[in-house]
Predict the structure.
Amino acid sequence: MTTEHSSYLEDIRLAEQANAAYYQSSEPIMSDAAFDALLERIAAFEEAHPDQVVFHRLFSAPGGGLSTEGTDVSHEVPMLSLDKVRSLDEIESFTTSMVALGSPVTVEPKLDGLAISIEYRGGRLVRVSTRGDGRTGEDITERVRSISNLHGVPYVVHPSVELEVRGELLMSKSDFATSNANRVAAGKTAFANPRNAIAGTVRADSIDYETHATFIAYDVPGSSEDVNAAAAHLHALGFLPSSDLLGDVPHTAERSVLEAVEKFGVAREHDDYPYPTDGIVIKAVRADIRPKLGSTSRAPRWAMAYKYEAKKATTVLRDIVMDVGRTGNISFTGVFDPVHVDGSTIARATLHNFAFIHDRDIRIGDTVEVYKANDVIPRISRSFPELREGSEQPYDPERVSPKSGSPLDTSEVIWRSTDPADSLGSWVSYAVSRDCLDIEGIGGEIAAALVESELIGDIADLFGLTVDELTALQLSEGRTLGARNAAKIHAQIETAKTRPLARVITALGIRRSGRTFGRRLAAHFHTMAALRAAGVDDLQQVEGVGPERARLFREGLDRLAPVLDKLAAAGVNMGAEPDADDRGARPLNGMTVVVTGAMTGALSNLSRNEMNELIERAGGKASGSVSKKTSLLVCGEEGSSKWKKATDLGVRIVTPEEFAIMVGDLV
């Protein structure tokens, strides 16, 4: 694989993550401009190297390819997104081409909410659905009906009306302020911005506080009316057409389009403009030219969107701070000289992730551009290398947790902490790993989703998860875990109840404990009950346990008492006292055993930790280094440093096959 192709694959992964973050959370990981540039880079590579293109949906579906698996509404006429233009010249070119076909163009606000379809049969509202992937969406009728104060949606129109109306479900500034105040009064966390608020409201299973929202209509699919006539028709039926949101901005004469774009750009920045908007839509007025122009799989050719530049300012970056979130994700925050942006003074803004910082060569001391994404969230978009004076320092963070100092998982764009002490998400990821409970299928993304969904509050809650809960678990890009994966993970969780006591102890994630410590504690105390009853002095009787480690472990056991009770109640293995006969008959009693090289034969599938567990089940003591105290070296690779040292010391050396015979049925 070439470096260029590797970069292409990384671009796709980053774009998909950015797209999911934008549509599914309140924390987008990059600016719109950066996202658009990423798509352009992907498209350029694919055009130059068609034989190396991999499957993705970044260009083929609205919303950047959000999956709608499990939803149940088919759109007879696809609900498409809009292609973006980036300059006034492109707007002028589009306008000229439409006029040449005999159609003037019109403009309307590009609103920042949730695209929905509302269907009427016999004059009554019968169904509301999301856009989804443009062809299949989700039925959200009852959730929309549960909104306390919904403006712009008539529930009953003229009895003869059979109609589908499409538009944007959103919260105006007033809707957002009122709904958020009611939400906080109900004891819930405030939403970050109007887009996040409307998405969260529609996705909620139930709402126990008063909410306000507004529907802005912008299309009647299949209508033969031109844009202006369709708007008048919608207005007469009780809808609020998007063209009504322009005020006195001219919007129909082809010569005034650029003036309209400029004037609306000014109008939308006023404090009294009521709706969340980040751009303007330009589309052909005449409906009869739409079939002639057609559409791509993602967007119509008779309309386009122009996004205004975000409100921004420049300042000097003084520091970059790392932090660990509740799910274990690492965030990067820029600290800079206070600057006034869009009505507020800010001194901190997100830098998304390390790849964002590295790719843009953002340095401590740089002059940087700060803007408000979606008019709410402060972000740093870029630096200005041409203004450097020589004292700026490249940013190269240590790959360790800012909380615990433990190594980070940096294998993906979003870095994660795997130290259980850092966050609940890190604890879960650690506890399900192979050396602990070994629950295959629960990676960092699923662990984070379980925490975000509040399905679990500690690792014991894993054992109470149902297949239905796992099936419906919301992942990135609008995906759910699905029934098949849920069943597999649930089966793995059930199997994890039988893991050896040493692994259960290790999974607790108590400070300065690990798999070796867990095995020693299990071998010494045999049961969780005995371990829980042990005092600091008792713990120090275990090899390698000094006063400080004993104190920390004792404190950890006390803190986790409720979790231990829940684990026991769930049927997780809490250990058992070995029979007296078994204690004296184990094949490796009194032996110190070291393992080196790859295992073969019956031992080929065992990890090094599983080999050490096998040694201790057989009565031996596992060690990582060869010394005069070593009784046996299990060697899968002659010539290694351990093999040489064992040979020099006269230590007995056996092959994996010979060792398997020694431990017999314990394998």
Observations:
- Confidence is low (pLDDT under 50) at residues 61-70.
- The longest strand covers residues 312-324.
